[in-house]
Write a structure and sequence with these properties.
Length: 153
């Protein structure tokens, strides 16, 4: 699988869940055997808005050639998906959701594994320096040694 394919899968999942949480949160979570009060509906709709943002960013990054930005976003998605996996696993083990809740655990696990694979396979260690076109050095997407004309970002 290519990273661009993983971005598209992430965009589609985030779009579907984002729309669901934004427009019909009580219906969506009822499939998992969960009921929401008014405060939880509010938080679910905020989550839906955030998912829609992830969908747009993932879609836009699918063909990006900006290596340091892609690297940063892949790391961000790896951390986000990993944390979501842990949270969903803990609550699933506590019996919060019905059996369908395991699908959420698996989705977050697979997405975290995918982004983790691409981060470490393609971009190497966290200490890796990137040599930019003008000979400058970058670490974590931050310019650490400048060797060109006027700086730009």
């Amino acid at each position: 699988m290519k990273l661009s394919t993983l971005f598209v899968i992430n965009a589609i999942l985030a779009l579907l869940f984002g729309l669901g949480f934004l427009l019909i949160p009580t219906t969506l979570v009822s499939f998992y055997g969960i009921q929401l009060d008014a405060a939880a509906v509010y938080v679910a709709r905020l989550l839906g808005a955030a998912y829609l943002g992830y969908a747009i960013i993932s879609w836009l990054f699918q063909n990006s050639k900006a290596a340091s930005e892609v690297r940063t976003f892949v790391l961000t998605l790896f951390v986000t998906e990993s944390l979501a996996f842990v949270v969903s696993l803990v609550y699933q083990l506590q019996g919060l959701a019905n059996a369908l809740g395991w699908s959420t655990v698996v989705i977050f696990l697979l997405m975290a594994a995918g982004f983790g694979y691409f981060y470490w396979k393609k971009y190497g260690s966290l200490n890796q320096k990137t040599v930019l076109a003008d000979g400058s050095l970058s670490r974590y997407g931050i310019l650490i040694e400048y060797r060109g004309g006027m700086p730009h970002r």
